[in-house]
Amino acid sequence: MVINLLDKIDSPEAEVLARWVVALNFCESLHMKLLTIHSEDENERVHKYIRDASKGHEYWIGGTRLVDGYKWIWMPYGTQVEYTNWSNGQPSDVNEKCMQVWITNNKLTWNDRDCNAEFFFVCERYVDSSTSGPPGL
């Protein structure tokens, strides 16, 4: 069984700013992926992680509409984004095709951004819960 270890987010490059595609490729090079958020509970746990990390208030996550320009999907698997927590008025620009989260008014909300902007990012890993011991790459 595969589980999401969101409470054990692994972000080895948390102090590095990168463009969205660079962040995506970096995570994949470690057999990980850019963070995905599928529920309000996950969004709250990500908020706590980012708040406690104190590296910044804006992070790339794995959502994009680079494929067709309109539909938001999670990369690298191409699954449709169903749960959302957009900031008021977002997404706001059809030319901003990558997804970031940011903390405003002590809330973690989502925003569309130009994929060439540089932000911190969070890599996420999944582990097989049938194995024992610490999770590995």
UniProtKB/TrEMBL annotation:
Disulfide bond as UniProt keyword: yes
Classification via Gene3D superfamilies: Mannose-Binding Protein A, subunit A
Stretches that traverse the bilayer: none
Keyword match Disulfide bond: yes
Top-level lineage group: Eukaryota
Ranges where the C-type lectin domain occurs: 20-124
UniProt entry keywords in alphabetical sequence: Disulfide bond
Cross-referenced InterPro entries: C-type_lectin-like, C-type_lectin-like/link_sf, C-type_lectin/snaclec_domain, C-type_lectin_CS, CTDL_fold
Protein name, UniProt field: C-type lectin domain-containing protein
Organism of this sequence: Psylliodes chrysocephalus
